[in-house]
Amino acid sequence: MQAYGTLDVKWAKGFKGDRLSHVDRDMVCFSCGNSIKFVNVVTGAESVFQPPGGAVCQVTSSSHHRMFAVAEEGLNPIITIYNFPSCEVVCTLESGALLGYSQLQFSFNGSLFAATSSLPDFSIFVWDWQTGKLKCHEKLPGESPVTSLLFNPLNKREISTISETHVSIWTLEECNEISTMKSKVVNLPTTDGVILMNGEDLTSRSGTRQGFNVHLPTSTRAGLVGGNADKFEPPELRRPRVIPSSQCWSSRGEIYVGCVGGQLFRVDGGSGNAALLLGGMSDSLLVGDIECGMFNSISLNSEGLVAGGDDGTLRLIQLDNNGVKITELHQGTQPITCLSFAPPLYVDLVLSTSSGEIQHYSLVERECAPIITTRTGDFVGAGFTCAGKLAVTCREDGELQIWSCEDGSLVASFSLCTRTCSLSCCPSSPVVAIGTWTGHVCYIDTSSLLTEEINLRQVGSTRIHHSPVTYLKYNAGGDFLLTASEDEPHIFIIDAKPSSGFQCIGYVDCDGTIKDISIHHNSSTSTVLVVMSQSNDNGDYDSNNLIMFSLTSELLGNTDGHFVSLRNNFKDTSVKLTRHSLSVSVDSAIVTTIGDNIEIAALSSESKKLLQFRLPHTPQEQTPIHPVSEHYGHQLSGGSIILSPHGKWVASFAPDGDVIVRDVSSWDSITRSQPHSYIHGGVKTLTFSPDASHFISVGYSDQACMCYQWNFTSKGQSAGNNAVEYARVLNMRLRSVMDVEGDVLAGMEEWSPSTKIATPDQEEQEESDAIRPKSGARSEVTMTPTPTPQSDATWLDTRTLLAVKEENAKYDEVKRDLRKNIKELRKTILGMMENNNSLPELEQLRHDEYNLDTDEQSKMQEQQDQRVQEIREEIEFENLAQRYLAYLITKQCWDDMVTKGRSLKGFTSSCSVTNYPTTSVSSEENAILNKVSRMRKIEMAVNTVQKSIVETGTKQGGDEDEEEEKVGLSLHGSLGPNYSGGNEMFYSQFDLHTREEKITQIILVKDAIRRIKSSFNEAFTNIFRNKEQEMTRTMERNVRIREIMKELELDADSVKDPQMDVDEKPEKVFIVTDNEVTVERVLSKEQQKEKEEQERVEQERKEAAKQDNKRERALTDMMGGVLEVKKEDALKQDIPAPDFMDEKLEKDWTDEEKKKAKEHQKKLKDLQEEREKYRKNLENELKKLQQNNLDAITNYDESLQQLFNRKVKTEMVVNQEELKILRMTQAIMVADELATHEDQLNKLLELKNKFKASSSSRLEDIQMLVKDYEEINDSTIAEDKMLDRAFKRDFSDVPLSISDQLYKLFKRRPRQQKPRTLAERSNSLDPYGVSDFSTDAMIFSTQDGLAELDSEVNIPEGVDSALWQRLCNARRNKVESESNVKQSVTTLADMMKYLHHRQNEDEVLEHSIDDVIKQQTKLCEDSMKNMLNLEVQFLLKQGQVEINCGPFISDYSDSILIHRGVVEDLNGTIRTLGESKVAAMTESKDFKKGIHQLEWERKRMVMQMEDLHNRARHIQMLKLTKDLQAFLNEENNTAKQSQQVAVLEQTLALQDKQLQKNISHKSKLHRDLDRTIRLKEQENHQLDRVLEELHVSVSERKNIADVNAGERAKNTADKRLKGIVQRRKLVDLAKAQAQEVAVLRAEVERLRMKTFPALVQVER
To answer: CA angle, 1315 as apex, 1312 and 1321 as ends, to 5°?
Structure first.
């Protein structure tokens, strides 16, 4: 096939909606499958370029350089840079990533190229793409892939990278051939807008240590040492950070970073500090709304920041000092994924969406136009229609698209609105069959594609499978369609002609899972080959079984007698079905030739090679067929193989992404192409065009569809002509069928879910329903319901139901008789059961004996028993788990406790006291305590001996010992010794310096706490026993009290015995009483037997008790049932009266009887006195018993209150001891942290020393390089000066006049063309002002200028051509030398700058080493201070603390501890001085009090005097008015006042009268106005009627006038035009005459002025 030609990409479709970039002003590029696609944003033209390398990983481009770069993916991938549009390779970049790249980027100017890698190295690389040399590479921060990589447009040495967790700024520094990169990692803000500054994680240990603050990093507290210490972040400071999603550089060297949550922050490129702009507290200056996900992509121009978000909205964000303004530019429907401004104007914007659309937006016109509107999504299949002129593809979401094979333009589209999985095009009719995930096969009419009005429509849908339709295959003649699913062992055969209504003819059964189907068409027979996989003995699946059957037109046209059953499954003999077994497993197979043997080609699953087999027409049983030959295959298994329509070419494709085409006559000669990448699953399907000149490949998950065409050689052209001729012949043969089927298709209605086509199967079913006799419809015999298909039933389900109905109709009479017999038998058994119920209980039979189906009954019983057993086991397991949990809780919280926790409560008081639950001391703890005790005793003995040797005992020393005994508790820090917590082995609080001493003290204090709790528990136990004894005595007394109260006929039930609740006796919790169980108790078989035995024994005992007992009956009859009569029982008995007292009257008694009566009365009186006496004794006894109970309760409550007070004291002591433990533990922890910090500082110092050594050596090397280059630079400058000096020497043979002129020309340089700046491009919105000219363009401009200067036009006179050529050569050498000098000076400046940076870094490193040394020194001081500056706990009384106490912990940092006697002496002196001062102040106060009283008396008299003077003055100055005089002169003032009142009343009456008159007048006027209004309204009504009539008249006249207006307009138009023209002429004439008059007047004025002298004075 290599001699036939090559396969070239003709067009490609598919865009994931990810990244696109400009390769020039009007062209964007992006990856499509394994190719690069270019789209013109102005014209929409598309082109495709397929790189010759491997899988395409990343693509980027540069509009400034007109280049694009393609990165491969694989082991040690390379990056290839191409020119555009020639697509020639510029260079290849190697030595980069290990597996693949995540981002690529060109620098805006210069020749730098950057890339970032992903797993496993996570690095950044920078190359010089002109030389292909790797400048440097560094590790990225973190281990998350970079999502964006950008160069600073104004500084090619600054690069910014963002990932989900980091934002980094990289600075490239160069020193001739040496390059390094330095990074600054940005501290990301939190999601709530807070920027945490570095260093905020330092904590202080000032919480409990007074006057001792040690600042340590949180990593030290965590115990981290080494590299992990710098990355540690404490949990309390771990706050969710923003997730960067996009970035862009500003013209000021800042970076704008957009985040997923709608935040926007700015990063200073120099310092790396972040400042939040949106999403935090700065939103108070915000104009607009913030949406989550609005910064999917951002780009910058002069107007502001343009952002595209998840909501499909394009926003313009303008930032200034007044705040942030957000403006919505465009509202879309799909999320925006990428933005790219078209350089150099930055006016046009290209954006892509997640749905695969590419749009063009103009910031000038504010309009958005689509460029590519095809939807995104994975393709499921492709095909050809309209004789190969059009290509058909379908996406997984049901989008059907029709493409032109010539240019790849979209012709039409149609949406099925369902999920699809396969596609196939019919050769004999314009129909496209699509398989869905629901098992339906949909049919799309494409007959309108060649007409002017395109209207795709769905004309049918049939559900064939329950699972997705995996395979759809038409035969070459378009007679039938095969459908199959991987989950069903059937291959269905459907009539492909629309005239048949796409009827399903039948199906063929398979024995396994279908893996591949192929059809070989030969004349009128189509051979179908099926690859199946079956499970082997090991449980694996082998696909080494083949099924082959044949389908002919005669068979499909007449299927009578060819089905096994009414389900329409074909007989094996009818379709000539054969089964073959291969020796190897294959993924796909096709039939290539059918002759004496059947030759097939298959792809091996194991070796991935192409195998050839020869199958016999009659298969041999249990004989696997071995391959005849092997040929080169693919790299990955799971591929497929297809045959071209003319049967001469074979194409194979696999998940490795390769497509291999070969000729059946030469299998080893192949033509290979790689349309898709193996990363995305490779090739999914491949389809040849009818003439085999094109094929379309579809990828698995790259959302790409590639169309390839043959580029034939002369030899391949003949083979291509054969394929074209075959297609032409086939098309001619099928043309008549296509015309007929096209007419049928045009007459079919458009399918909808409510429209159903009546298939012959359904018609047959309806006929069978109609034929069935209706006599049985009303039969008394119960009929089985007729099965009806569901609404979503498959074709096979419908055929199965139809077969069942046919069977029912065939055996209807037999079933009827069986039902009748069953009904009679049922009535007989029911009658027997009724008779059985009427019989006695002993004669009745059980109901289960009437069950005729005992097997089914036993089966159901076994199922129920099994279910019961399962439930019982589940319950037992749950109970076992609960019991085990209860066992653990009981063991840990009860059994292992030496002292069980319990409480004591008072009888009458609410006081409650609990003990201390304690556990047994383990052997390890005892061993540690004994060890510590022995060591402490030895230490104390040693200290005693040393003290006796060094010190001499004196009396003074003895006094000090006594004083120490007095203040021992205060220095001890607790009251533990008073509560059995003392220990002579305790260290003094002033001696706890070392770690071992503190640990020993902690162990001893814990033992003291244990003894304190044990001492309290002993007291608690005594009180508890006391309560138990008192309760026992009280209950005994209560028994007697109840007896007495019963005898006294009082309420004995009111006496209650004291009880202990669960808190006092917690062991009651483990005892479950019957009243606590609320559910019915289920007994096991053993418990049930035991219960029955107990009931039997109890029943026997009751029966025995019912029998006659002679002893008890004799005791009852003879002695009243008791052996001894008590006194109280005798007192209860009444003395019987003599019989005569009841029989006779008192007057009839005899003397003897009267005597007996007196004796009886005396006995009664004595009995009554005895009873009263006994009653008083009982009352006294009752009071005594009650008082005893009350005294016992009171005594117990008092003892309980004392125990409670002791518990409070004990709790205080325990807390004091535990506080000691906490303080010592905290001191040990601080010491450990200081030691950890010391280790960290040591390692840091060691690391920095290594860096310093390498930095010093590197600095020396750089200095040597700079020194060497300085010499090179000096030599270059000297050579340049030598060229200048050598000019006169070289031109010494030239005359001086010409020499000077030539020297001027020698010094002349071409004028540099200035690049256009941003100010010169008024229509540009470029925010960076990047020059239109690159460095290469400047070089070309210089060369062009030199060529212009060297032209013969500039040759001066007297200079010949040879001399001029010498001058040009010398000038060119001079210009080249100057260029070398300039480049050398620039390089030297960069090297000096690099050297300066390294020197600064070396100094910074040296300073950091000094800082670490200082920290070590400070740490040693802190460690010593922590060891010596102890924190001591004192026990002081309330009055001994003389500072202001805080709310919780007092601050004693500025306090001092002094002796109490000093304070008391000082207080006595202060008190004496204070008393003397108070006495002096009292005397002074009394003296001043007398002075103040005298002063007050003086002021009072002065004020009285002033008041009297004022009164006298007022009397003297009083004025005598007329009213006052009249009042004084009038004798009767009362009469005068009465007269004035009468006058006023008369005036008031006159005013009331006048008011009534005015009111009547106004009422009359009101009535007149109302009457006038009514008259006017009547007139208005009349005028309205007249107005209506006038309106009608006016309308009629207007219509008449409109009709006549046209006639008049025609006549008057010419007149009006003539009048206008005449008026215009007159106006022009008037203007001309007016101008002439003005000119004449000016001339007259000028002539007049000539005749007068000038009298104007000149101003000086």
So the answer is: 150
Percent of the chain with pLDDT over 70: 89
Query: Is there a contact between 1436 and 970 (Cβ–Cβ < 8 Å)?
Result: yes
> What is the token pair recorded at 1299?
């020499």
Inter-CA distances, 1116 with 989, 1103, 1124, 1126, Å = 86, 21, 13, 16
pLDDT band with cut points at 50, 70 and 90 for residue 758: very low
Q: Confidence band (pLDDT; 50, 70, 90) for 1124?
A: low
State the CB neighbour count (10 A cutoff) for residue 336.
27
Question: Cα dist. 1079→26, 320, 748, 877, 1423 in Å?
Answer: 84, 76, 71, 20, 68
CA atoms within 13 A on the CB side of 714: 0
Contact 1252, 1374 (CB under 8 A): no
As a whole number of angstroms, the distance between CA 1599 and CA 871 comes to 99
Mean of pLDDT over the chain: 83
The strand pair at 286-287 and 323-331 is best described as: parallel
Asked if 769 and 809 touch (Cβ cutoff 8 Å), the reply is no
Residue 1656 sits at φ, ψ, to 5 deg, of: -80, 130
How far is C-alpha 1479 from the chain's CA centre? 82
Q: What is the rounded CA–CA span in Å between residue 1170 and residue 845?
A: 76
Instruction: Tell me: cis bond preceding 787? Omega within 30 of 0 counts.
Output: no
Whole-number CA gyration radius for the chain: 59
| The pLDDT of residue 762 is above 80 | no
Q: Residue 1384: name the closest of 1499, 1268, 1495, 1473 by CA.
A: 1268
H-type alpha helices, 505-590: 553-557
Task: Write down the pTM of the prediction.
Answer: 0.71
Residue 611 · residue 627 · CB < 8 Å: yes
Q: State which amino acid sits at residue 510.
A: C
In this structure, what token pair is assigned to residue 133? Answer: 């040399």
Alpha-carbon distance 1316 to 1329, whole Å? 9
Handedness of CA 218, 224, 227, 233 (dihedral sign): negative
Cβ neighbours of residue 858 under 8 Å, at least 6 residues apart?
none
Distance (Å, rounded) from C-alpha 645 to C-alpha 590? 13
Max CA pair span of the chain: 205
Give the per-residue pLDDT at 1348.
Answer: 74
List all residues 6 or more positions away from 1428 whose beta carbon is below 8 Å from its beta carbon. 993
CA–CA distances in Å: residue 1317 to residues 344, 348, 1506: 11, 19, 96
CA 217 distance to own-chain centroid: 32
**C-beta neighbour count of 1025 within 10 angstroms:** 10
Place of tokens 């071992």: 996
Query: What distance in Å separates the CA atoms of residue 549 and residue 577, rounded to the nearest whole number?
Result: 4
What the block records as the tokens of 1330 is 């990047």
More confident: 1081 or 419: 419
Cα distances (angstroms) measured from residue 1119 to each of 43, 646, 1122, 1128, 1130: 134, 132, 6, 17, 13
Among candidate residues 280, 184, 294, 202, the one with its CA nearest the CA of residue 241: 280
Contacts of 817 (CB under 8 A, 6+ apart): none
pLDDT for 202 beyond 50: no
CA torsion angle for 462, 466, 467, 470 (degrees, to 10)?
Answer: -40
In whole angstroms, give the CA distance from residue 661 to residue 652: 7
Strand 254-259 with 297-301, pairing: unpaired
Cβ-proximal residues to 571 (8 Å cutoff; 6+ apart), any chain: 562, 563, 564
Mention every residue, 6+ apart, whose C-beta is less than 8 A from residue 202.
215, 216, 217, 218
1265: left (phi over 0), alpha (psi -120 to 50) or beta: alpha
Please tell me the distance from the alpha carbon of residue 1053 to that of residue 663, in angstroms, as a whole number: 114
CA–chain centroid gap for 1121, Å, is 90
